[in-house]
Design brief:
It contains 13 helices and 15 strands. By secondary structure, the protein is an alpha/beta fold.
Length: 427
Amino acid sequence: MTRHLHDRHQAVLPDWLALYYRQPIEITHGEGRHVWDADGNKYLDFFGGILTTMTAHALPEVTKAVAEQAGRIIHTSTLYLNRQMVELAERIAQLSGIPDARVFFTTSGTEANDTALLLATAYRGSSQVLAMRNSYHGRSFSTVGITGNHAWSPTSLSPLQTLYVHGGVRARGPYAHLSDSQFIEACVADLEDLLGHTRSVAALIAEPIQGVGGFTSPPDGLYAAFREVLDRHGILWITDEVQTGWGRTGDHFWGWQAHAQSGPPDLLTFAKGIGNGMSIGGVVARADVMNCLDSNSISTFGGSPVTMAAGLANLTYLLEHDLQGNARRVGGLLIERLRAIAAQLPVVREVRGRGLMAGIELVKPGTDEANPEAAAAVLEAAREGGLLIGKGGGHDTSVLRIAPPLTLTVAEAEEGASILERALHTV
């Protein structure tokens, strides 16, 4: 049955639409931290639909909110007042840390970043944008153009002029040998030098922890140091929180808060986890930035009644059950367990991450060379053992990405780590 569906998929969908596994699986239903495929196999889900099922599969509070709202009205558009959209915007504005914040809802992280770029370039009157090497910001024409990862950037054409900055990857690159403070100092010097060779720049966009890039991040404080430079030039700071938002990192509610010494960002983009599977994205910005557009706009599907009801229920559950604290506690235990496993395996170069956002970088033993073949093999072995994980990385896809729902229990963390240990030993 699955084989037949795969054949139909290949016959009608694009060749570039990636699928995991040599024999792709069809996930039919889920509950808590587990999902089942069409063949009846049960899996512990350590990827959550790419960090999107943030709380749990089939969370009763969210499914109830969706069903009740769908029973009243499914769609209206932003041309009409929408109580759920206003209520969720109020909560997100308050949580964002951005003063006098305004919120615009979209249907995806790609669209959120696209909107942030529109706002920043219009506000600054410039099409020049700074982005981080190894970054990923979406699949639209503008976001592909600022993505610093060639595996996910299919064209060099872009409406923007993008300049790439050092700093998103701590353990590789020309500054990897430096101490954290020296690393920050070198990256700031590189930024200063870069700005000395450009005209007016609109914004810097950066993921606090790079998602598709393999869960890499700079030392805490790098973007605060960047912010001091940006402020002198009037350049806006956009923090892409599509994967790092809502407490996933454990230590902070937003990834930017690890770099808060120079104040909050000017714009913040979000998506994925807030909808727990429903299509919600958005931008938070200072009022003067958000309101800088001099023409009308709407969103047909952004802020829809059903998705906003889901987002409200999901955010309420997350806050009332302190899932950020759970990500810190259980994620910390999981990362330490993974590091203990990795210490015995020459194929593992590094285990990194924060909270329930962990990456395991694989190399060819005895070298520093990326090992995408091993990553693919471990992905398959983990699935066979009953665990779903992701993969990513910069020049080569050699990083295992682990990002379970934030309700993960200690027992489930141990179970997943044990399956991963067996899978890693296969390579």
